[in-house]
Known about the structure:
With 264 residues, chain A is α/β, with parallel strands linked by helices. In chain A, 38% of the residues lie in helices and 25% in strands. Chain A has helices at residues 44-52, 79-85, 102-109, 115-128, 130-134, 145-157, 175-190, 202-208, 226-231, 233-238, 245-253, and strands at 6-15, 18-28, 33-37, 60-69, 72-73, 87-90, 163-167, 194-199, 211-216, 219-225.
Amino acid sequence: MTGAGLVVRDLSVGYGPVRALRRVSLEVPEGAVVTVLGGNGAGKSTLLRAISRTLAFHGGAVTAGTVTLDGRRLDALPPDRVVAAGVCQVPEGRRVFARMTVSDNLRAGALGGTRAGRSAALDRVHELFPVLAERTAQRAGLLSGGEQQMLAVARALMATPRVLLLDEPSLGLAPLMARRIADTVREINTQGTSVLLVEQNAALALRLATRAYVLEVGEVTLSGPTAELAASDEVRRRYLGVVDEDAAADADRATDRTLTRWKG
Amino acid sequence: MSTFAEILLNGLSLGSVYALIALGFVVIFRATEVVNFAHASLLLAGGYVTAVLHDDIGFWPALLAGIAGAALVGAAVEFLVMRRYRGGDHSVLAIVTIGVDILLTTELTRRMGTDVLTLGDPWGDAVLRLGPISLAHTRIAALVAAALLITAFLLAFRYTSWGIAMRAAAESAETAALMGVRLGRVSLGAWAVAGGLAAVAALFLTVFPTPGLERATSLAALKAFPAAILGGLDSTTGALVGGLLVGVTESLATGYQSDLTFLGRGLGDLAPYLVMVATLLVRPAGLFGTKELARV
């Protein structure tokens, strides 16, 4: 499990005495879309914070384990160096700089880079999100929710990351807008950026990703190719909201025999 | 009428100097959310360096040295003290700055003793007469210098990468960090800029008609504090308006003191605080401050 891409090994995280993650391992191979599913409080955002090294803002710390990108350790770097190394996060709830204009938001995303790199990234972002090109002088706080999400993704892309971490990009968006964001994620991926997508909207995430991990109370309980997971009764029942009677009956009969339990 | 115009112009000039100091407060507050009570001692440090050096190297180099010195002291405070507490409670940090202030001020006043130091400025006590209005050259210089510096600062704040990093960090430190903004650098820069601005303010607080740099100068510097608060601690516009408001009020209260004797003497020193309290009663977040909004 070493080599290319983003690799998380046996990661444990605590907020003071509270264990938030326990020996979590996952892999985002170069060029892949990988998703992490899980309900509220499962530790999804904590996982992304641990990768981006912003746990300290929440009083948390990594207690064990490693995070590497192409074999290079990220877990001792300050947040800005993680970005420089090529891992950039779109935080949950969009978090655009509401009092700054759209173009200043985008500039804020590219502060680590060079001027030439910045204008290339800006062209790419404007091509992906033409609406942002029309609103450059507008304050980000006045954009609609969907536009803010686009801006948040665009801002992260300004750093030309190799791995993009997305924390619940569809949260609070109308289904149509969520689908647009999904299309964009696919587009970004085909342009060569790996994506780690954290989602509660499992239907959307399973369609986008090639591999999925299910996080429950801080532990990875299931993992596998998305096609397999999407077909599994447990995932269908718990995350896709499918209540077909056969599946329910199956589950009743054999809760332990569904999919292979993930072994750390 | 001519006295009124004179008082007003003097007040604006004084106010622009307060605005320079208040701007320093605001910059540090926005970058780090810490109220910097050590600001007056940064000012004193800048003034002291200029006062000590001007005889040997001339006024302008000494002024530059003062600015650089105060910026350096500010950066050192950030690097040696504030950085150790990063992530700590902001109110604790504010109290730490009080400690830093006491330390710096004590050392500087020990060095100055009871002397009143001149800064060797080229304006002296020359006065410009425009018809019935007479204005000291120093006051005009203060107004012009402050206006230039503040404009340069606001332009940098608006258009440079430094300004963008600063504003991003002010809105959300965590998100800024996620975007690759180096928070340590932002905070170091804020302290250095605040120190530099304070050193310029030190010059104009100690030139004619004030006798010179002395212990009490830091008290004068404290008047920028109500200026920053009444403008709204997190607003650069607020710092400017607040500074001017405090300057003009002080100037008016001092100028018309003879008509206000029923209120007792020394009203000029008190006026800034009265304006601040009155403003906060009406607008608790200050004139331009961001209201604390909590979504339920």
